[in-house]
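# step 3/5: fold
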Amino acid sequence: MKTFWRKLRQGLDRAIYEGRFKQFVWLSGVLVLAFIMVLLLAIVFRFDLAAAVPGAGPSSKPSPVVVRLIELLLDPGAFVGSGAYNYIFFQFVVVIVGATFFTSFLIGTIGNLLSRRVDSLTYGRYTYAFEDHILILGAGSALKNLLHQISETGTKCDIVIQTTQSPEAVRDQIRSFRLKPCEKDIYVIYGSRTDMTALADLRFKDAKEIYILGEDDEPQHDGLNLKCWNQIMEECKGNPGVKHCYLMLDRITSHHAFSYKKDNGSTPELRLNVISAIENAVQGVLVSGKVGKVEYPMLDREGIDKDSDVNVHLIVVGMTQTAYAFATTAAHICHFPNFRTKNKKTKITFIQKDIQEEMDFWMGHYNTLMDLSYAEYRKWDESGALQVKKFYPKPEYINPIYSDEKGFLDIEWEFIDAGVEDANVRKYIRECVAKDGVSEYLSFAVCGHDAEANVAVAMYLPSEVYETDKIPVFVYQPLTRFVMYPASETGRYRNMYPFGMRGDCFDPKQERLLWAKRIKFVYDMCGKYDKMEEQAALDDRWYDAKNKYALQLSNVYAANSIPMKFRSIGVEPSIRTDLTNDEIEILAEIEHNRWNVEKLLNGFSALPFVDRMEILRSLSSSDPQERELSKARRNWLKNMCFKHNDIAPYSELSSGSRQYDFDIVADLLDVIK
């Protein structure tokens, strides 16, 4: 009996806690039990309710006992007519039982049901049978920009946001975005993006687009996003229809590791688009020249042509992952024709106190790039004497015919071991300012961890930096650009530009991606290009499993360099329909110089000069068997050892390798139109 009562209490408590319609089931059970009890009492004690009380006055025929008991249980007001029946006290007891077990319980149940429903809505514990919806997993800072993009497209569908934050706080934040009219279609659900049960409740298989954002500043952000993507990919296998999945990675290392995948992560059911948050934010600055409402000047200003005596000089303050992204993005795009005509190289300088450890990490992380690069380490001793350590490319990679001791790359590096407050560094910066527009185009990127400290550093730069508005100072501001507005609105600091705002870093459908898909098609045609494919065909080609993610990145980086390429030959794409042979030849060499750096940044290494010459000789041999063996060896080195024989001076390339560069740049006007 004790077990029975315990189970009964547990069931009742669960019903009250869980709410919904279980409470009505319990209410019905209690009411039936109460009715049976009073009916048994009426039968056992022979309460003949049907017998009218003498002198009660005229009345209609009294109801049978069963009907009368139901009347009293359900409606206490029926006791008013009890004078027409016997046993008024018993009827009173039945009314009390009915009022207790039905009326009060009914009101409490309905109130509790509504309260539980309100709680479910408040805490994001409700779900609907969503279909053909947009599913966003995580409510990080990138959510704002993403929702604005969806709103601007006029998309009419449910937008479901899953978050581990307070759903009510996220809703308040969304209301501040002013997304009307799509705001009414947004649903915020509490849950974890790695919990498959929670994801199943959100009908992810029926969504038309999935965005895996994650939350801000959470441990293992990229790991959780990758786990979520893997789970969704596995569950979507065999699911009818094709949907796009956008995966955000915060750390550059995570993005770099992903580039080694043997495919691009897409399946027939799920087309994957990887977004490197920091890299994407920097590309918006250096490539697009506009992020949100902020417009940015270019590192090469109006362009650097073959007759120019000026090179790009980018000074990066700090060696954070943002600094890495800024420097590598500049290295990807800053390639100009005056490298061959004037031997002018893009120079990228890092400034940080006690930079030695970070420099060693950079050298190790990008060891294949630094093996072919010229670099300098600068430090002032206690007496103020400058100590310079020079790093030259490894001599076995140098082509003695086409390269000097500084190598054949058109990028060089500099590491300054001191803070910007150091008097020697300030003197160095003033010397660089004096060269701006004369022998170099100077730019600064302040990329420390602390946003407010970055503003302080930028404002503490020597005043000569701000005497004209020609030297841009890009300042990393991950949370908001408004800290800088009071200073940048003044005449003195008008060339200070905030960048890296998390709310603007997620741009999944940028124009650069369309350019990359078109470059992929031009490259695949290899001299057989006639006209551009339709978008659907371009997408099929892009997401094909054979198109490795590293190859996608290569196309993206090639697309990023297009604006600088056209500026370097003085071409305005909107008013030109084709390029001259001379322009194509210049761009082809620029493209190869860019490709050299891209491959090295992605972990490929060059072959020693002797080995490169041997492969070139074998490929041009009159013996077919020797040519085939050479091709096989070249492919094995490329695919298994990450070594490429074409990482070399442009003048050293075979005619076949040059043709690839020629074919790509010849059709760039079609690519951007």
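# step 4/5: annotate
Residues 260 and 309 are 39 Å apart (CA to CA).
# step 5/5: archive (pending)
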